[in-house]
């Protein structure tokens, strides 16, 4: 981060940042290597792995993020820094969606689904598992920004909408999504309109 007038860095890494960075990378890569070896050697059976995944996904990670958000000092939050984080995710996602729709030779339903999947992939940067140790070692004052759930609140829902639109187009057969939405307004009351199905699938993640 630089000042426009002086072009001097506003923040510099703390003392021992290089050593801390090397230690953080070593710990992170070491944990990944241990997990890979245990999985490849069969030390952890699929049932245990499934239980660990459920615990991490539904208990440990949400509690970790909630604690980070609850203890965050919002008065020290820099919206310029947060805006830069959002832009760094929005630009790749928009670019990937544009590339898929402009250059893909797949059918329209597959384009929607490809855009959703690839758009999610380019924004999921694993900020907590890998980014948090690195930022804590180099710029500890910026660690609070990694707890902000912009991925799950903004980008993942957009990707899921693209996936659901693609699935709806695929189930339409010969008709397009726009035709389905228009036809749904004239369907009998006992038939669920297409736009209602689409919204329900997005909200229930089906």
From TrEMBL:
Cellular location(s): Membrane
TM region positions: 20-43, 55-75, 81-103, 115-139
GO CC annotations, alphabetized: membrane
The keyword Electron transport appears for this protein: no
GO biological process, one term: transmembrane transport
Membrane topology: Multi-pass membrane protein
Keyword Transmembrane annotated: yes
InterPro entries: Mem_transp_PIN-like, mTOR-Rac_regulators
Keywords: Membrane, Transmembrane, Transmembrane helix
Name this protein carries in UniProt: Uncharacterized protein
Species assigned in the record: Eutreptiella gymnastica
């Amino acid at each position: 981060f630089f000042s426009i007038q002086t072009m001097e860095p506003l923040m510099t890494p703390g003392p021992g940042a290089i050593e801390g960075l090397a230690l953080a990378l070593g710990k992170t890569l070491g944990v990944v290597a241990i997990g890979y070896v245990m999985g490849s050697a069969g030390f952890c059976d699929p049932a245990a792995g499934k239980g660990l995944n459920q615990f991490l996904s539904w208990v440990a990670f949400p509690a970790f993020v909630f604690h980070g958000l609850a203890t965050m000092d919002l008065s020290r939050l820099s919206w310029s820094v947060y805006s830069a984080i959002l832009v760094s995710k929005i630009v790749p996602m928009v670019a990937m969606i544009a590339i898929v729709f402009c250059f893909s030779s797949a059918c329209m339903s597959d384009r929607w689904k490809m855009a959703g999947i690839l758009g999610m992939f380019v924004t999921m940067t694993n900020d907590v598992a890998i980014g948090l140790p690195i930022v804590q070692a180099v710029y500890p004052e910026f660690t609070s920004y990694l707890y902000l759930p912009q991925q799950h609140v903004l980008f993942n829902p957009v990707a899921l909408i693209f996936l659901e639109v693609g699935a709806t187009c695929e189930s339409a057969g010969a008709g397009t999504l726009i035709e389905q939405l228009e036809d749904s307004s004239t369907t009998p009351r006992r038939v669920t309109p297409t736009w209602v199905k689409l919204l329900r699938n997005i909200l229930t993640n089906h």
